[in-house]
Amino acid sequence: KNIHLETKMYEGIEWIGKMSTDEDLVIIHISAHGISIIGEKRTGYGIKLDKDYSYSDVNKFIDVLDKRYRHLILIVDACYSGGFIEACQKDYRWIITACEENEYEYGNKMKLLLRRFSPDELSKTLFTHNMIKALKNLKTKYGPKYGMVPLGEAFINSKATLLQRLKAGGVKRPHPRAYFPYNMNLFIRTAK
User: Which of 39, 50, 83, 103 is the most exposed place for a label (fewest CB within 10 A)?
Assistant: First the structure.
């Protein structure tokens, strides 16, 4: 199920828990503003949704789901999102981020939006656009025969395309990152 949630993060995670089964592969895609200042101490990184969330806040919400599912994929399209890897990595949790912890994510910084993206707008951010395109291309390659696509290969292809496009435009950053705990090619089922 592909649902766009305009809600508080904990309500969204709670909804996922209620609407899915133990056998489901859960993919959480967060598109938000990355922020470099958290809390009164004004240190750290995180994301801005209905409020400011540190990486550890997001990790606590997702921990509730980890106890239930065999595989969970977290995709974060935000400035400074690379920090989610260190804060959120665990067995059976695959994490893909738009950039390093200390970098701006090109598409989000240029738009300067102070709200979450709609599904249509989301596909237009440079990082997410390239990831969706890579998944579609691999669906054409692997889907008819296997009905699945390798997530790791999709990430590698989307990263290469993104970096090539940015370099052609004279942009040296961002550098998307990924954490795959065991097998880089976790296969995900394609829609029919």
Answer: 39
- Percent of residues, the chain, with pLDDT higher than 70: 77
**pTM of the model as a whole:** 0.80
Q: Which two tokens stand for residue 24?
A: 């489901």
Q: Is 169 exposed, middle or buried (0-12, 13-18, 19+ CB in 10 A)?
A: exposed
Cβ contact 7:15 at 8 Å: yes
Type and span of the H or E element at 144: helix 126-146
Average pLDDT, stretch 87-104? 87
Backbone CA torsion sign across 115, 121, 127, 131: positive
Give the integer Cα–Cα distance in Å for 174 and 61: 27
Look over the chain and give the mean of its residue pLDDT values, rounded to a whole number. Answer: 76
Bridge partner list, 38 = 43
Tokens of 176: 């998307």
Domain range 9-189, CATH class: alpha beta
Digit-coded pLDDT (tens) for 19-31: 888 778 888 888 8
3-state secondary structure of 36: coil
Query: Nearest-CA neighbor of 54 among 41, 66, 64, 44?
Result: 44
Residue 15 CB partners (closer than 8 Å, separation 6+): 3, 5, 7
Over residues 134-152, the mean pLDDT reads 80
| CA distance linking residue 192 with residue 185, whole number of Å | 20
Spans of all domains in the chain: 9-189
